[in-house]
Amino acid sequence: MASKVTFDAREAVDFAIIGSGSAGGILAKELSTAGFDVVVFEQGPYRKAEDFTHDELSVLLRGELLGGGPDVNGQTFRTDKSETAVSGPSAPARYAQTVGGSSVHYTANFWRLRPVDFKERSLLGPISGTNFADWPISYEELEPYYTRVDWEIGVSGAPGPFDAPRSKPFPMPPLPIKSSGVLLEKGAKALGLHAQAEPHAILSQPFNGRAACMKCGYCMYYGCEAGAKSSTLAAMIPLAEASGHCEIRAESAVYRIETDGKGRASEVHYYDPDGREQAQKARAVVVSANGAETSRLLLMSASDRHPDGLANSSGFVGRNLMYNAHAAANGVFEHPLNDYKGAQVSRIIHDFYDTDEKRGFYGGGGIDARPLWSATPLFQVLEGMPPDVPRWGAQFKDEMAHNFTRQMSIVASTTSLALDSNNVTLDPNNTDKWGRPSIRVTYHDHEDDLAMAKFLQDRSMELFDAAGATKAWRHPIRSTDGGEHLLGTCRMGDDPATSVVDRYHRSHDVPNLFICDGSSLVTSGRGQPTMTIMALAFRAAEHIAAAARTSNI
Amino acid sequence: MSADKNVSRRQFLKSSGTLSGVTLLRIGAPAVIAITEAACTAKQNNAAYKVLGAEEAAEFAAIAARIIPTTDTPGAAEAGVIHFFDNAFATEMSEMLGAAREGLAEFNVALGDARPGMSRFSTLTPEEQDAYLATWESSGFFELCRMMTMFGFFAMSKYGGNKDHVSWDLIGFEGNHGAWEYPFGYYDAEYTREQPGGE
């Protein structure tokens, strides 16, 4: 488990990177292979591919890769600031604590944003009561980095009819179509919609020395024991360590970024694996801890010079949390789909991506077909049973036995509007197992986002009907009490009064502090954010390295 | 962690059946699931129990056997679900054992109130059991039994239940071991036939 190189905590390294996930793993690889000395802090353990299992009880229900639930992290939730936030059975901010972060357990649906996502505010005008804004960068500016994600992380796919322009083809063909994809495509044709192959951060062929997907079906929420899922653990961390300039410091939970007399970030304070306080000096700090953890750390790093939290003169740290709203409809068919095999999704529909003012509300989204609950047995019986079936007894048993192989879901994911009232703050009462103030989430979906989810669920029910489902039902849509997409909480922008980082991810307030992860997103996209987080990380790394080389940090 | 488990126990006792399955599961999950493989050797239906007495085991087993009954296919009894209960109560769910026992005692006392002379659920006929169990559907005790029955039925055998993977066979799940080949199901097979070389 030992890293190839270790650095002395008392000697300043070039970069301390906090977080080893989708952004942190890429920044670690890019900066270390460029010759900079880097220490990566990861609060979770250093699991390798061979450590990942198919143990549904442990992974899906216990949250093995999440490091446990609210009993461990103390996270709290409320829908409005007038309430006292409380811990529920499930954490409101869900991310993997393991080297590679949430790229280890993601489902690996990899959508690029489109040009419209970056400038929708200009196209549509303001939306009252929201922080709806354009990005400071365009799709065209990010496109080369999306292409780097395709080719360096490893993305399988085929162009779809509405895709944004790409400068280079996908490096690999898409994963083959599953029965759920066939049925979605059938429904789409009947309704005049366009099903297209799902792009995945999963290898459909051997690539860059890594093995291809073996179709085990354990993608969503599980780690890939074949290394075929393109996590940063599989694709980036090995290259970073091989550079001889990168130390992965696992089970090291950062609790403060210290600043010096000039207001520059100087030291990273953390708990080591034995719970002892340690400090690592650094010439620059990169925070890539995810939209919830990054916000918490900056708020915890308040000082006399930065009384409201580090890099928070705008007050925007932690604000504008966007989860993407979701809706699910479930259907059963006459013959077995066996959709538990293989990656979750094989076909998607992007006909409703753009905002259509005729719908009467802001927003757009995507639809996909996947097993969802029926990917594994416990998930199926606990969440995926039809509402008209008893919860126990002979009829329940017959129904679950019949449905497991014949069931699929059509899942919709949508835009989330940025709101002041949806945010991450420090819980005043709870602490996590390290003693840090717990993450407190305040969140209520904007009514337009729920309306979009409902609109797409209506289309999902039509698709089931057109595809010949013998039975279909809706999963109730309600404002969410948690999620995995932790977006927007340290947004990028040109104006220091309304954003936390500039267009190159440098914080407006602290010149040697960079922030790059889901928190950087200005808008939420239509529901699969990781491709964009990774592209931003490649782009940020290029600018950060250039600045460091010219002593401009 | 004992404080957390006290919270779990309170939540359990106060909870109603309106909690979703996953919700209740997650309350008990850290307890239910962190059961070590070493602690999970009981698999035979006649194996000795770690913490459950024979009589209370028979009661829990009878409840589980109505939640997933034996029909023309195996149910909770054949899967050895009671050994999941026993393992869980012996290890990470040990703090819940007291509450579960209180719940069971209350369950059987109320049975005596409803049917004078009857003091053990396990001695009722299956039809009588279903009718009585239905009156408990909204209770935390029932929900605990239901959740543990599901875990014991479907979770990996190393947790004590799912003997010989009878549950997976029942639902047509060919196992969690890994590699599969296309086509997976009826519709993708048909699609592939219609589009030779297509995918």
Summarize the structure.
Chain A has helices at residues 24-33, 56-61, 70-73, 115-124, 139-154, 179-191, 232-235, 237-242, 293-300, 377-383, 394-403, 447-467, 530-549, and strands spanning 13-18, 38-41, 76-78, 195-197, 246-249, 253-259, 265-271, 277-287, 326-332, 347-349, 365-370, 407-414, 423-431, 437-442, 471-474, 513-515.
Any idea what the radius of gyration of chain B is? 19 Å
The sequence of SSEs of chain A as H and E is EHEHHEHHHEHHEEEEHEEEHHEEEHEEH
Number of strands of chain B: 0
Q: How many individual helices of chain B?
A: 10
Helix tally of chain A? 13
Fold-level CATH name of the largest domain in chain A? FAD/NAD(P)-binding domain
What does this structure look like?
The complex is a heterodimer of chains A (553) and B (199). Chain A folds into two domains: 1-66 and 94-156 and 199-325 and 487-553, FAD/NAD(P)-binding domain (3-Layer(bba) Sandwich), CATH 3.50.50.60; 178-197 and 326-414 and 446-479. Helices cover 24% and strands 16% of the residues of chain A. Chain A contains 13 helices and 16 strands. In chain A, helix 1 (24-33) packs parallel to helix 13 (530-549), helix 5 crosses helix 13 (530-549) and helix 6 packs across helix 12. Chain B is an all-alpha fold. Chain B has one domain. The longest helix of chain B has 21 residues, at 94-114. Chain B is elongated. Mean pLDDT of chain B is 81; it is low at 1-45. The interface between A and B is large, with 54 and 59 residues.
Q: What are the salient characteristics of this protein?
A:
heterodimer; A: alpha/beta; FAD/NAD(P)-binding domain; B: 199 residues; 10 helices; 57% helix
Write the layout of secondary structure elements.
The complex is a heterodimer of chains A (553) and B (199).
Chain A: E1 13-18, H1 24-33, E2 38-41, H2 56-61, H3 70-73, E3 76-78, H4 115-124, H5 139-154, H6 179-191, E4 195-197, H7 232-235, H8 237-242, E5 246-249, E6 253-259, E7 265-271, E8 277-287, H9 293-300, E9 326-332, E10 347-349, E11 365-370, H10 377-383, H11 394-403, E12 407-414, E13 423-431, E14 437-442, H12 447-467, E15 471-474, E16 513-515, H13 530-549
Parallel strand pairs in A: 1-2, 1-8, 2-5, 3-14, 8-16
Antiparallel strand pairs in A: 4-10, 6-7, 7-8, 9-12, 9-15, 10-11, 11-12, 13-14
Helix pairs in contact in A: 1-13, 5-13, 6-12
Chain B: H1 2-14, H2 21-33, H3 54-67, H4 76-79, H5 81-90, H6 94-114, H7 126-134, H8 140-154, H9 166-171, H10 186-194
